[in-house]
Amino acid sequence: MFIDEVILTVKAGNGGDGACTFRREKFIQFGGPNGGDGGKGGDVIFLADPNINTLIDFKYKKLFQAINGEPGGKKNMFGKTGENLIIKVPVGTQIRDMETGKLMLDMSVLGEQRVLLRGGRGGLGNTNFKTSTRRTPTIAGKGKEGIELKVKLELKLLADVALVGYPSVGKSSLINKISSAKSKVGSYHFTTLEPKLGVVRLGEERSFVVADIPGLIEGAHEGVGLGHKFLRHIERCKMIYHIVDVAGIEGRDPIEDFEKINNELRRFSERLAGKNQMVLANKMDLIWDMEKYEAFKKHVEDQGHKVYPISVILGDGLKEVLNDTWHELEKTVREELEEEADIFEVLKANRSTKEPFMVTQDEDGVFNVDGSIVDGILGKYIITHDEESVIMFLHMLRTLGLEEALRNAGVENGDTIRIADTEFDFVD
Per-residue DSSP letters for 188-224? Predict the structure, then answer.
């Protein structure tokens, strides 16, 4: 089964929490803080694996998560770093942000590894919060949560040459003849139900990759037939083999076939239609009216393309095609179709847009405080129910504008305030 598009969720590992511990040793009555830092969470990494050809491994599993970092320990022991998650994908896979559609990673280089999401950093142990006035800090850093992201994986085959043409014109037979590929061949439409890659070897250090794309039909750019599903696979090829049944065995007109396929390429992508085409006039061994061939040849050449008369079955004309292909590929540079977006900017755009402070009053008259600043502090520090820890938490919020936000919300002296699971009275 060939699967070339999947949607999945990836999540970087959470950072481990810092430890809030104190020395407890014989003959030492008041030991100082000795909580270690938490470990960093694992990264989400994509690997372009040459041994994978489809995205079928992602058909059933939809969540991929790196390992969390371990919490810090006593005696200033650091938590263990979470193991990275390496996701293997075929060469040519593009990873897009599902929310915006922006391209984040283009895995077009064989064997490359690229980081999509960095694991959350580990929280600081309470040792780091010791000061000359705070000798026994009861606060520790909280490990940063790993980012979770929904992404779309699209596979675009990286072939040098793409085969296009109506069904049953001989594309599968051609790729079987010139390469080691084994495409299914038959006398019925849509024999090829998935793209096939074949390596053509002309000698030492002279080879190129050909993609056999399922037959296009009129309306393919709009999703008719199988063509639309596979047109994107040839967007990044260097050139095109356009195969035409010049003998018209199935009663179709070669010139009409040639024009209709090019129209589909144009309507899907002008860039695709503008690629260099080698027009292969196949089934020359079955043609009886050479005037028909000459008319086709003139029509194609008037549009700036060279026609190669061939017979795939007999092997006639293929040597010239392959040699000319090699010379054309030598002087053709693969186009970069789309720039990658800045991953940091994409992630930043996906973040919550909470107000700094959001104060609401419930039916019991309690004022509940939420907002991005509250989330930020709760996400950064481990707040215990120790009095010193709570006071420090409230002091940070007050410094960042909590008192003003409460007054603006109508809070008065003696009203009850709730932040997370902590309640206190407002004193004017």
Answer: STT---S-EEEEEEEETTEEEEEEEPPPP-TTGGGT-
Determine how many CB atoms are found less than 10 A away from the CB of residue 114. Answer: 16
Question: In sequence order, what E strands does 51-108 have?
Answer: 63-65, 85-89, 93-97, 103-107
Give 255-260 contacts, CB < 8 A, sequence gap 24+. Answer: 255/295, 255/296, 255/299, 257/165, 257/166, 257/169, 258/296, 258/299, 258/300, 260/166, 260/218
Rounded CA gap, 167 and 172, in Å? 10
Q: Do 166 and 151 share a structural domain?
A: no
Q: Which of 124, 155, 186 is the last residue of a domain?
A: 155
The domain boundary residue, chosen from 155, 189, 217: 155
Question: In the numeric block, which tokens belong to residue 400?
Answer: 């960042």
- Read off the pLDDT of residues 381-400 as tens digits, 9 standing for 90 and up: 666 666 666 677 777 777 87
Taking a C-beta distance cutoff of 8 angstroms, is the pair 130, 32 a contact?
yes
What is the DSSP secondary structure assignment for residue 340, as one 8-state letter? Answer: P
Q: What is the pLDDT of residues 226-268, one digit of tens each?
A: 445 567 777 788 999 999 999 988 788 999 999 988 988 888 8
Task: Read off the pLDDT band of 365 (50, 70, 90).
Answer: confident
Same domain, 303 and 251: yes
- The domain of 307 spans 161-330
> Strands 44-48, 85-89: parallel, antiparallel or unpaired by DSSP?
parallel
- Residue tagged 């070897």 (tokens): 201
Helices 372-380, 387-399: axis angle to 10 degrees equals 140
- pLDDT one-digit tens code per residue, 102-148: 999 999 888 999 999 999 999 999 898 888 777 878 888 888 889 99
Q: How far apart are CA 35 and CA 140, in angstroms?
A: 8
Q: What is the pTM of this model?
A: 0.69
